[in-house]
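User: Sequence recovery, please. Input:
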C-alpha cells in the first residue's frame, strides 16, 4: 500500500514476495524513517488459525508513526489485509507446537530527496515467514551480558518506537556479548547507567521475594505486548506485580543474597525466556542455580495455550482468522 501527501493511502495490493526498486536517495536509507512490527499467527490443534493481539501491534506501530513524522494508517484496513494474507497463506503455518507464522508489517519513507525533512511518499508492506519452535531443544535459560559501555535509547528519543535505528545502535554490543559467550544484552539507562531497561528484543522481569518486578515504561523502553500480557496474567493469579525503577545493583545483590528467585525476558519471538545468569563487570551472577524458574514455565505454558486456542482466553487476546 502506498501513501503520498496529496492522495493519502492508496493502492492496497497483494503480490508475491519479490525485491522492489527504491531510489538510492530514499529517505529511509539516509534518515531512518522505518517502523515495523512483529507478531505471530498460530495454528491451533483444531486447525483454526489465531492471531495474538494484532490490534495492539498495529496501534503501537501507529503511535510510532506519529513519533517518526510518518503518516498514521487505517488500523481496520491493515488488519483486514493482514487477516486476508494469513488466510491465503494458511498452508504455510506449521502445525508443530511452538511453531508459527511470523508477520512483519513495515512502513518506510521512500522520497528521492536528500534534504532533511519527513518524506512525502511512504510504502507499507507485510513480510510473512514460517518460524519453528524457539525451544526445539527444551525450555532453556539464557545468559545475559549487562552492557555498561553503550546505551540503546535515551528518554525523549525513540526507544519506545519499534524503529530500525534502535536495532542498529545495539548491534555492536550484541557482537561483543556474543563473542564473550552471552546470547543477549541487558541495557541500562542512558543517564546514570544504573537502572535496568530491557533486554535485546525483550522486556525483563525479576521475581524479588514474592513480588514480580519490571521496569516502568518511561519513554526509552519498548512497551512489549508480551510484557503487558504477563503483567495481566500474573495479577489474575494473585501474584503481586510492580512496575518500578530497579537498579542493576539491587538485582545483583538480590542474586547473591537469594531474594532474586528467578528472572525472565518476554517478547513475541520466545514468548518467555528464562534468565540463568547475568554477567556484569567481569563477574557472573547465577539466577535460580542457572535453571528456568517455576513462574517462567507457568507463564510460558499458559500463554502458549492461549495462543494456540487450547486454553480459555479470558482477556480476549486471540483473534480468529477465517
Ligand atoms: N523490546 C524490544 C526492543 C523489542 O524489539 C521487542 C520485540 N518486539 C520487545 C521489547 C518485546 O515486545 P513484544 O512483547 O511486543 O514482542
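Assistant: Recovered sequence (322 residues):
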Amino acid at each position: 500500500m502506498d501513501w503520498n501527501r496529496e492522495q493519502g493511502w492508496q493502492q492496497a495490493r497483494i503480490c508475491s514476495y519479490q525485491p522492489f526498486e527504491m531510489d538510492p536517495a530514499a529517505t529511509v536509507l539516509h534518515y531512518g524513517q522505518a517502523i515495523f512490527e512483529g507478531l505471530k499467527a498460530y495454528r491451533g490443534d483444531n486447525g483454526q488459525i489465531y492471531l495474538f493481539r494484532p490490534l495492539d501491534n498495529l496501534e503501537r506501530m501507529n503511535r510510532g508513526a506519529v513519533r517518526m513524522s510518518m503518516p498514521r494508517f487505517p488500523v481496520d484496513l491493515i488488519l483486514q489485509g493482514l487477516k486476508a494474507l494469513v488466510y491465503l497463506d494458511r498452508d504455510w503455518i506449521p502445525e508443530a507446537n511452538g511453531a508459527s507464522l511470523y508477520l512483519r508489517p513495515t512502513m518506510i519513507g521512500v522520497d528521492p530527496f536528500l534534504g532533511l525533512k519527513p518524506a512525502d511518499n511512504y510504502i507499507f508492506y507485510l513480510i510473512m515467514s514460517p518460524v519453528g519452535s524457539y525451544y526445539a531443544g527444551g525450555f532453556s535459560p539464557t545468559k545475559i551480558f549487562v552492557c555498561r559501555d553503550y546505551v540503546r535509547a535515551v528518554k525523549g528519543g525513540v526507544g519506545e518506537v519499534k524503529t530500525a535505528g534502535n536495532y542498529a545502535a545495539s548491534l555492536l554490543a550484541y557482537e561483543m556479548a556474543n563473542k564473550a559467550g552471552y546470547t543477549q544484552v541487558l541495557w541500562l539507562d542512558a543517564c546514570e547507567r544504573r537502572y535496568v531497561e530491557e533486554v535485546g528484543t525483550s522486556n525483563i522481569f525479576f521475581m524479588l521475594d514474592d513480588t514480580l518486578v519490571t521496569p516502568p515504561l518511561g519513554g526509552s523502553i519498548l512497551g512489549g505486548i508480551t510484557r503487558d500480557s504477563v503483567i495481566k496474567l500474573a495479577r489474575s493469579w494473585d501474584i503481586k506485580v510492580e512496575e518500578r525503577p530497579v537498579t542493576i545493583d539491587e538485582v545483583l545483590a538480590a542474586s547473591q543474597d537469594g531474594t532474586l528467585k528467578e528472572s525472565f525476558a518476554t517478547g513475541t519471538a520466545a514468548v518467555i525466556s528464562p534468565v540463568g545468569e547475568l554477567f556484569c563487570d567481569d563477574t557472573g551472577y547465577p539466577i535460580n542455580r542457572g535453571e528456568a524458574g517455576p513462574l517462567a514455565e507457568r507463564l510460558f505454558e499458559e500463554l502458549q495455550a492461549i495462543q494456540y486456542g487450547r486454553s480459555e482466553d479470558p482477556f480476549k487476546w486471540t483473534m480468529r482468522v477465517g
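The pocket of 4'-deoxy-4'-aminopyridoxal-5'-phosphate is lined by residues 38, 162, 198, 201-203, 222, 224-227, 266-268 (CB under 6 Å).
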